[in-house]
């Protein structure tokens, strides 16, 4: 009898262990952050159920059961570029997908055993996947045969219902378009579904005119201005390196007109950004208190290390001015969270 109890306990432990990989909590999902390595993601979510890759981009797909709502399954897709997380999507499921069966030892018979694991559901709603290399080559060959601008836009709209793209793929598509208006339209429609937005600057430079390039940069800036941390496609600001900032600052300092300096700041769009220490150098160039405050407000969305914001508030002598800047930062962040 004692031996049977031991075998029964071991069997139930195996069943529970196999099911535990199917559970995921909201906390685990929220722990996945942009910039994480594949190893970090695997430690949080386990091994992926499916994996797709193309060059330096990769997708991991997880099928899990929510530990918050019994029987509520979710599908998680994590996108990587150069081995680092760029974005993540989650989807609810609808169809039942049972956990894998566990082999029972033949000597043990268990009757009237309640289910150990909740049922899992397979997501049926439409989701987008990254277009792989061979698939993209076929798509590009077909796209070259489309001549009329309206048909080119429709062709892109149709494929965007199903697929995401890399920046390099978007650049190859733009190369096939002869109309500047169509280039802009296609680029704006594709940008939200680019999985490696940090590599998008060379694509913008493919636009025919400087006016179009400036317009696209403003569009990107506005797009990320509306994005909140945690949103799909959100790109957290990444500070310039010391060498990059030195070049930027020397050029900025050499501008004679304020309009030229403002344009330089406007052209710094995500994922490019500044540290608070770098921003301090820009703020110190302002003469009047009001100008310093306006500069801080303009730079704040581009700051990569907001925890060091006191470096900027310390530019003011009076506590009233420091408090005003802290309240601005708190108000800005509260609108975005």
UniProtKB/TrEMBL annotation:
Keyword check for Signal: yes
Keywords: Membrane, Signal
Cellular component terms (Gene Ontology): outer membrane
Keyword Ligase appears in the UniProt entry: no
PROSITE patterns listed in its UniProt record: PROKAR_LIPOPROTEIN
Pfam families, sorted: BamE (PF04355), DUF4476 (PF14771)
Span of domain DUF4476: 131-220, 240-328
Residues in coiled coil: none
Residues annotated as domain Outer membrane protein assembly factor BamE: 22-61
Signal peptide per UniProt: none
Entries under Gene3D superfamilies matching the protein: 3.30.1450.10
Name of the protein in question: DUF4476 domain-containing protein
């Amino acid at each position: 009898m004692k031996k049977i109890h031991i075998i029964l306990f071991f069997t139930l432990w195996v069943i529970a262990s196999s099911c535990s990989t199917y559970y995921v909590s909201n906390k685990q999902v929220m722990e996945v952050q942009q910039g994480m390595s594949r190893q970090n993601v695997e430690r949080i979510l386990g091994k992926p159920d499916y994996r797709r890759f193309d060059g330096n981009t990769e997708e991991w797909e997880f099928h899990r059961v929510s530990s918050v709502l019994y029987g509520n399954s979710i599908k998680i897709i994590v996108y990587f570029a150069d081995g680092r997380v760029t974005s993540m999507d989650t989807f609810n499921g609808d169809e039942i997908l049972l956990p894998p069966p566990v082999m029972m030892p033949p000597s043990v018979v268990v009757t009237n055993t309640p289910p150990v694991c909740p049922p899992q559901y397979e997501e049926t709603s439409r989701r987008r996947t990254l277009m792989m290399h061979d698939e993209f080559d076929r798509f590009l060959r077909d796209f070259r045969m489309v001549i009329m601008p309206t048909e080119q836009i429709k062709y892109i709209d149709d494929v965007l219902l199903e697929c995401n793209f890399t920046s390099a793929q978007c650049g190859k598509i733009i190369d096939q378009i002869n109309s500047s208006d169509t280039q802009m339209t296609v680029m704006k429609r594709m940008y939200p579904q680019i999985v490696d937005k940090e590599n998008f600057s060379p694509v913008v430079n493919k636009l025919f005119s400087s006016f179009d390039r400036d317009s696209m940069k403003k569009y990107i800036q506005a797009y990320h201005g509306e994005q909140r941390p945690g949103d799909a496609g959100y790109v957290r600001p990444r500070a310039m390196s010391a060498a990059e900032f030195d070049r930027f600052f020397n050029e900025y300092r050499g501008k004679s007109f304020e309009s030229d300096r403002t344009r330089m700041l406007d052209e710094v769009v995500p994922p490019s950004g500044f540290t608070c220490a770098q921003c301090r150098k820009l703020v110190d160039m302002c003469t009047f208190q009001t100008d310093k405050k306006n500069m801080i407000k303009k730079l704040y969305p581009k700051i990569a290390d907001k925890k060091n914001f006191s470096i900027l508030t310390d530019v003011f002598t009076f506590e009233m001015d420091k408090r005003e800047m802290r309240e601005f930062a708190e108000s800005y962040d509260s609108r975005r969270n």
